[in-house]
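Changelog note: in this version the structure field was regenerated for every chain. One regenerated record is shown below for reference.
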Amino acid sequence: MRCWCGGCGSRSESLWRIRLIGFLFVVAAVVVVVVAAAVDFRRRVLDVFLLV
């Protein structure tokens, strides 16, 4: 069982929390990379259209 109060102090609970935080960091990094790539791609497409 997962306890949210943090009073039990079991090892599996802290491991689960560390995994969740790590997973959220990975998701945030992927989102940042995708957004940056999309902005860069849009800029390149606009440059091509302006050149034509």
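Spot check on this record: The CA atoms of residues 14 and 34 lie 30 Å apart. The chain has one domain: 10-52.
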